[in-house]
Specification:
Elements (H helix, E strand, L loop, with lengths): L4 H17 L24 H5 L25 E8 L6 E12 L2 E18 L5 E19 L5 E14 L2 E14 L6 E13 L9 E8 L1 E3 L2 E12 L6 E9 L2 E9 L4 E11 L2 E10 L3 E11 L1
Antiparallel strand pairs: 1-2, 1-15, 2-3, 3-4, 4-5, 5-6, 6-7, 7-8, 8-10, 9-10, 10-11, 11-12, 12-13, 13-14, 14-15
Length: about 300
């Protein structure tokens, strides 16, 4: 007779596969025994999705991409919603708050990813019904300038939980980042260390990420073209090289990206609008077998 633990192990394995496959744009399939807490590989920000995960050296107010966020003059509150690749039928939500304190910038982010009606199978491949899997993460941090003009550093602390059927695990982590753009320079560079921590169940390794990147700003008539290239190391993956281009004109930004060496991930695209106190970003990843992963974010400066 099959014990309760066997179906649960089957459910946990199936959920790990689903959560791992749900990684978007620069979130790739995981080898057996890969790091836990797959949500920490994801970036719910549509701009990062449209850039295929590039932009560590671009500078932004997205603390998940780089903890060294730009200086801001007013508080910004935003909320986003996205879908995992269409074949996976999951969702990803994000709420973020960035606010100033002189030249410092404080931030807080909440993320949630959920899957429902996942078919469960036991070790003998018999159906055990359906179940749900989800994960949430909370991050809070700050960034500040250093005496060297153009250099900013940032740090944030995070905590979260993975839930698969009746099983769950908690985790805590640290994110570090830096950006550098000299005065009047067209180029900028950045580096980020993400997910430095550990989970509670069996001391799981988290998907630690180290990423460096650079960007160039090239005026072209009324437009500004911003090509960027990154190198990204993830604890349980091969090295990745996201490349992207952002074209800016007035309140409009058009974005496209691609990850070199990953043919299964097709080009990502998106756009952004920034007018008066309102911000709107949209983007989508594209996988050859799994389909599209669209996301939308609305922000307001208050």
């Amino acid at each position: 007779m099959t014990s309760f633990a066997s179906p649960l192990r089957g459910n946990a394995v199936a959920a790990a596969l689903v959560l791992g496959a749900a990684s978007h744009a620069s979130w790739f399939d995981l080898p057996s025994g890969g790091a836990s807490f797959k949500l920490l590989k994801l970036d719910a920000h549509p701009a990062a999705l449209a850039l295929s995960g590039a932009g560590t050296g671009l500078g932004s107010t997205d603390p998940i991409r780089n903890a060294a966020i730009d200086s801001v003059s007013t508080a910004t509150l935003s909320a986003g919603y996205g879908r995992t690749y269409s074949r996976l039928e999951g969702s990803l939500q994000q709420v973020a708050w960035v606010f100033p304190s002189d030249s410092w910038s404080w931030n807080a982010t909440a993320r949630f990813q959920g899957f429902e009606n996942i078919p469960g199978r036991d070790e003998d491949d018999r159906s055990t019904g359906t179940y749900a899997a989800s994960a949430w993460a909370l991050d809070a941090g700050l960034s500040a300038p250093l005496p060297l003009e153009g250099l900013r550093v940032g740090a944030s602390l995070g905590a979260g939980m993975d839930m698969v059927a009746e099983a769950n695990a908690f985790a805590g982590w640290l994110n570090l980042g830096a950006t550098y753009r000299p005065r009047d320079a067209r180029w900028s560079a950045g580096a980020a260390l993400r997910n430095l921590g550990m989970g509670t169940t069996h001391a799981e390794d988290l998907p630690a990420i180290f990423q460096i990147g650079g960007a160039w700003r090239q005026p072209l008539g009324d437009w500004t073209l911003v090509p960027m290239v990154d190198a990204k190391w993830v604890a349980d993956e091969d090295i990745q090289f996201p490349v992207a281009l952002e074209a800016r004109w007035s309140i409009l930004a058009m974005r496209a990206g691609y990850v070199l060496g990953r043919e299964e991930f097709l080009p990502s695209v998106g756009l952004g609008l920034d007018w008066e106190n309102w911000i709107l970003d949209a983007g989508t990843g594209w996988h050859d077998a799994l389909g599209f992963a669209p996301a939308l974010r609305l922000g307001i400066r208050i």
